[in-house]
Predict the structure.
Amino acid sequence: MVGRRGWAVRPVLRCIAALRLRRDVARAGYVDRDQLPAIYRSSLALVFPSLCEGFGLPPVEAMACGIPVICTGGSGLAESADGAARIVPCDDPSALAEAMHEVEESADLRARLREAGLRHAAGFRWEDKAREFVRLYELAASQ
């Protein structure tokens, strides 16, 4: 688990403890941005379940590193993943577990997700997005 302790981390930590997975779940905490590509690349997949997400930058970052992504639908994640990730319902932990198992067991699925993710992530260039935002702000200011 990478990232700052969020507002809903306590139930997750209780679940890890109840399932006796403390030794199996590494909690890295906050990681500097320059270390993230190495962490992504050392992963079998990025599992990014979220009930409330805007765009969802970590899935696109993982895709850019060639890492398959599993995330939940029903928020901005399905849109930002745009068919390049394994999407599961946000209210179905069994479906999430099944997707994780499928990605772990299937080299073909990992390869398909890796290729789709690399193609998808290539469409995100910061310069292009910055120009789009400037254009939107100009349009909003002119109205």
Remarks:
- The beta strands are 46-48, 69-72, 86-88.
- Residues 36-142 form a domain with the Rossmann fold fold (CATH 3.40.50.2000).
- The chain has a mean pLDDT of 88.
- The first strand starts at residue 46 and ends at 48.
